[in-house]
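Give me structure tokens for this 286-residue protein.
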Amino acid sequence: MELATAEPAWTAQDTDARIADIREKLLELEYSLIPTGLHVVGESMAPAARVDMLIEMARSGRPEVELPSIGDTVVAGHGDKRSDDSQGTAVEAIVHAAVHTLVHQADLRAAQQAGRAEAKTRGVRLANDRQFDQHLELLAGYDVALREDREVDGLLRALDARYVEPAPGGDLLRNPQVLPSGRNIYGFDPYRVPSAAAMLEGRGRAEQLLVKHRQETGEVPETVAVVLWGTDNMKSERRGDYALRHLPRSAAVASEAARRSLAAVRDGRGGARDELHPQARAGHDA
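Here you go.
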């Protein structure tokens, strides 16, 4: 066993500088993870904070309704004259104009017109008008939920041992159904997970893991182990669980049991169930 030396690793001369450097890194981490600060119970989000939140929600896309990131619905027809930076700036300006108008005017039609006007100003046409409008329609509903204050009422009802409406917990960007806040949250509905977003992200992570292993070893792994944390799966709606289920389908492992893979399939009520797929159906040679 290797133990640390008894002498301090920092000298008296550089201690203050090192502490200041650590403080700066901690502040950077705090601002990136909690950009709007801590929440005050019963206090609705400020308009500027709602604009930022709605833009991030639009960037995430809505896999459950097959809606891509809002940026993918914006830029088309700009030719090869624009650089990637210029294109990104145009997308941000168009999305911000639409969402800012939506939040401050609470008018869906005005928001749609603002986005199109900004696109015209920048010489850009929308790649998909219908999907762009669909994004704004969803964001309008999310904004209403962000402004709704149920927290104090929910707290008082709970303290009085009265019924509090249940709601899913988790990440707002992955599941907007957590809104409005102030309800009685639960981890996840076992009949509705993994969510569409978790399936998409879990599939991508599984593929990345296999690609990395193949690059490093030149072979496909025979076995794969994944650590599944309960709280992480609650927040991500079983993203890690779905990644684990997707791995046998991605890796051409030898045994007959592993030549089959599980896939989450949606039913007509939005529930999720497991379906066993043969390897040939999953894209591998039988």
